[in-house]
Amino acid sequence: MARDxxxxxxxxxxxxxxxxxxxxxxxxxxxxxxxxxxxxIKEVYGEAKGNGFDVKIIRKIISIRSQDPDKRxxxxxxxxxxxxxxxxx
Amino acid sequence: MARDxxxxxxxxxxxxxxxxxxxxxxxxxxxxxxxxxxxxIKEVYGEAKGNGFDVKIIRKIISIRSQDPDKRxxxxxxxxxxxxxxxxx
Amino acid sequence: MARDxxxxxxxxxxxxxxxxxxxxxxxxxxxxxxxxxxxxIKEVYGEAKGNGFDVKIIRKIISIRSQDPDKRxxxxxxxxxxxxxxxxx
Amino acid sequence: MARDxxxxxxxxxxxxxxxxxxxxxxxxxxxxxxxxxxxxIKEVYGEAKGNGFDVKIIRKIISIRSQDPDKRxxxxxxxxxxxxxxxxx
DNA sequence: GCTACTCGGAAGGCGC
DNA sequence: GCGCCTTCCGAGTAGC
Lengths: 89, 89, 89, 89
Hints:
- The first copy, chain A, is mostly helical.
- Helices cover 73% and strands 0% of the residues of chain A.
- Chain A folds into two domains: 1-52; 54-89.
C-alpha cells in the first residue's frame, strides 16, 4: 500500500465502499424517521384544529415554552427600546 | 353558552385546558424525538469522519440521492406540460 | 380555422408562441427585479448590522409595524388565554 | 458613556433613533416595491389567462426554466463528487 | 465570527 | 367558501 490516510483505506479499495454505504444508509434511515415524526406532528396539529384549537397560536405557545425566559425578556427589552427610539422623535 | 366554537368548548372553560395541554405535550414530545434523531445523525457523521470519510461529500451524496427521483419526475412533468400546452387548447 | 378557443389561437399556431414567449419573458423580468430588491434589502440589513443594530430585532420591528394592530392584539389575547389554560390547572 | 457597542451609540441616545428610523424606512420602502412587483406579476398572469393561456402551466414552465441551470450544475457537481470521493483519499 | 445552507412556518394562489 | 398545495420568508445550524 503506497499511502495510508486512515481507516477508510483497506488496501483493497480506494474508499471502503461497504463502510461508506453503511454510513449513508444509516443516515438515510434516520432521516426517514425524522420525516415520519414531522408527519406525526402535522397530524397532531390537524387533530387539535379539528377540536377547535387555533393551530397558529399553539405553535406560538410551543415556541414560547421552548425559549429561554431570560433571552426572551432580553429580546422584549430590545424591541421596546427600538420602538421607543422610533416613537420618541 | 353564548357562543360555540366547537368541541374545544366544554361549557366549563373558555378552552379545554386538559385537551390543550395534552396536544401541546404530545407535540413537544415528538419534537424532542426529532431533536434526538438530529443528534444521532450528527453522531453518525462524526463516526464517518473518524473513519476517514469526507463529511461534506457524504452530505452531498445523500442530498442528491434524495433529490434524484424528484428531478426525474420533474422532467417527465415538463414533457407532459409542453404536450398539454401544445395539444390541449 | 376549425375551432377557436379564444384569442390565444391565431389560426397559424396551436398556441401563439410569440405571445406565450412574451408573457414568460415579462414575468421572468419582473422576477429578476424582485430578486434584486431582495438583495438590496439584505444589504440594508448588513449595513444596519455594521452600525451596531440587532438585525433580528429590526426584523421583528418591521413585522410588528406591518401587522394590523387589531389582529395583533387578538392574537395576544388568544395566546394569553391558552397560557392561562395551561397554567391554571 | 459607560459602554460602547459601536457606531450605533452616539452618547446621546441608547440607540441612534434617526439612523434606526432611516434603516427601517429604507427596508419598508423596498418591501413595498417588492410587493408592487408581486402585484405586477399577478397582473401579467391575469392577462395571459385572458388571452387563453393556462396559468398553471406557465408557472410550471417558468419554474422549470429557472431550475434547469441548477440541475445541470448539480449533475456536474455529482460527477466531480464521486470522482473526488473515489480518487482523493 | 461571519457566511452559506437547510429546515420549518407563514402567506398566497388554485381547485373543489 | 374552505382546504390543499406551492412558494416565499425567517430562523437556526454547520462550515470556512
